[in-house]
Design a protein that fits this description.
Mean pLDDT: 91
Number of domains: 1
CATH class: Alpha Beta
Radius of gyration: 19 Å
Oligomer: single chain
Structural class: alpha/beta
CATH superfamily: 2-enoyl-CoA Hydratase, Chain A, domain 1
Order of helices and strands: HEHEEHEHHEEEHEEEEEH
Strand content: 15-25%
CATH topology: 2-enoyl-CoA Hydratase, Chain A, domain 1
Helix content: 25-40%
Shape: globular
CATH architecture: Alpha-Beta Complex
Number of helices: 7
Length: about 250
């Protein structure tokens, strides 16, 4: 069978699965995606809001490159660290534009907020649980342990929050002093298992479901704690809640 025919057959099978998350990336598209990731690392947009609140937009990242993943998580960790002293009243983590990719550099970059505990787990068909944790990334200047797990966090999600972006949102579920705002996510909350194919393609198959740190299963779209109309200023709504939380002194 020709390679092109094999890929076409796989795509037909994925269409029959209709699970909303499994996918096939052909070699040509994979090369284009990797080239973009190598050429331009997604920017970490941070800014300080009123009342000691720090805002960060966490973008998606599609790559299989360890170097690119490492650069992303280091950039994210440093962005958090640089604003830590001013974030005495909490963080606003924006995942509304995070369409996914690879979750590990995202949660590792957010280690300062997530801490060292199990954040969630993948559960396979046999019921075996595989917990995930964030690992600390290199920083520029940090507090002694680099952690800000005592800071309140508001998480923004929406229809474009997908796949790995949803894994990040799940990682915040069950965290103390944390609330999510926005609209339902894309619903790609299964765990994919990737297989390298001849010619350079990759096949990702949904092989597990996910659950949060409190073992609440995720099926389909994530629902925010506070559902907001699309016309509402979601950043302002989340910031208002953060202002009602207890502020802490910088370490």
């Amino acid at each position: 069978m020709r390679e092109a025919d094999a890929y076409a057959a796989i795509e037909a099978l994925i269409a029959q699965l209709d699970d909303g998350h499994s996918f096939l990336m052909r070699p040509s598209r994979r090369r284009r995606v990797e080239a973009v990731a190598q050429r331009e690392l997604p920017a970490m947009q941070t800014r300080l809001l009123a009342s000691g609140i720090a805002y960060i937009d966490v973008p998606g990242l599609m790559t299989s490159s360890r170097e690119v993943s490492s650069a992303y998580q280091t950039s994210l960790a440093r962005a958090l660290d640089q604003a830590a002293a001013q974030a005495s009243c909490g963080w606003l983590v924006d995942l509304r534009h995070n369409t996914g990719g690879t979750m590990w550099p995202m949660i590792n970059g957010l280690h300062a907020l997530l801490g060292n505990v199990a954040l969630g787990s993948f559960v396979d068909a046999a019921g075996k649980q595989s917990p995930w944790r964030a690992r600390p990334a290199p920083r520029s200047t940090a507090s002694p342990d680099g952690l800000q797990t005592d800071r309140p966090v508001a998480v923004l999600i929406g229809p474009k929050t997908a796949s790995a972006g949803e894994m990040v949102a799940i990682s915040f579920r069950g965290r103390a002093n944390t609330r999510s705002f926005g609209q339902p996510s894309a619903g790609q909350t299964t765990g994919n298992r990737s297989v390298e194919l001849p010619g350079g393609g990759v096949l990702a198959i949904a092989a597990s479901y996910t659950q949060d740190r409190n073992e609440h299963r995720n099926d389909g779209r994530l629902q925010p704690d506070v559902l907001l109309d699309s016309q509402v200023d979601m950043i302002d709504a989340a910031a208002q809640w953060l202002r009602t939380q207890a502020c802490v002194r910088s370490k």
